[in-house]
Specification:
- It contains 10 helices and 10 strands.
- The protein is of the alpha/beta class.
- It has 2 domains: about 140 residues, D-Maltodextrin-Binding Protein, domain 2, CATH 3.40.190.10; about 100 residues, 3-Layer(aba) Sandwich (D-Maltodextrin-Binding Protein, domain 2).
- Strands 1, 2, 3, 4, 5, 6, 7, 8, 9 and 10 form a 10-stranded mixed sheet that branches.
- Helix 2 packs antiparallel against helix 10.
């Protein structure tokens, strides 16, 4: 079972999936799910639940930037389900979706630093020219949110780098290559004591305004068997049973169906 494929390997992964995982696997069918990188931990858990309830089915998870995955889906990359961290990315793939995208969870930005916070970051105001902070590229949902938040907060200093997705931002902070980074709350929760959240009044005031909703939809073009599996996976993600999985990971605004 392959889990946790990152955006860094996306260009290599998708051709491999197309060759080896578009149809029946050795033990049965393979359901390929393209999902935003911030869903890595929760979708890995839900995929295992799905496999337990569908003997012979393997869920192949491909994680990456939402906009990149949407563009790959339009270009014909193999996948029966698409889950993005914003509605804009889902709109990019509207022509290849088998059903209307449905919201299923929410998330918000937080500011994190290495555990010892060597730069002494205490607020967004501290993100100045003397601080190496990182954020997602604006093409990614986390980047679009970060740009808007920083502008609203009056932060003029450019980031030290713009990463492809939120997991790449988190990795720079965890590895001590950045003084701070803007990530989703769920990523801070998943990182545990590898980062410290800078819980400031200004972040608390702005965070609610800079949250994102996640959307999921089956991708068109599958045979009947894979289309049925895709619909069932979407149902699982939006079910009451998934509520605790998302809540434990730090997601918010979870619809209950």
């Amino acid at each position: 079972m392959k889990r946790g494929l990152t955006a860094l390997s996306l260009a290599l992964v998708l051709p491999l999936v197309a060759c080896g995982n578009g149809g029946d696997g050795a033990d049965g069918q393979t359901l390929t799910v393209l999902a935003a990188s911030s869903l890595t931990e929760t979708f890995t858990q839900l995929a295992e639940t799905f496999e337990d309830e569908h003997p012979g089915v393997e869920v192949e998870l491909v994680f990456g930037s939402s906009s990149t995955l949407a563009e790959q889906a339009v270009d014909g990359a193999p996948g029966q389900v698409l889950a993005t961290a914003d509605e804009r990315s889902m709109t990019l793939a509207s022509d290849v979706l088998a059903d209307s995208p449905a919201p299923f969870v929410g998330n918000q930005l937080v500011l994190v630093a290495p555990p010892d916070n060597p730069a002494g970051i205490a607020s967004l105001d501290d993100l100045d020219a003397d601080v190496d902070y990182v954020r997602c590229a604006e093409s990614a949902p986390c980047g679009a949110l970060a740009v808007a938040l920083l502008e609203d907060a009056g932060v003029d200093a450019p980031p030290a780098s713009e990463e492809v997705d939120v997991k790449a931002v988190l990795a720079r902070v965890v590895q001590g290559e950045a003084d701070a980074g803007l990530v989703y709350r769920t990523d801070a929760v998943a990182a545990g004591d590898e980062v410290s959240e800078v819980a400031t009044d200004d972040m608390a005031d702005l965070a609610a305004a800079y949250s994102t909703a996640y959307f999921i939809a089956p991708v068109a073009g599958s045979d009947d068997a894979h289309a049925d599996l895709a619909a069932e996976f979407v149902t699982l993600v939006r079910s009451r049973r998934a509520h605790q999985v998302f809540a434990d990971a730090g997601f918010s605004g979870i619809p209950r169906s």
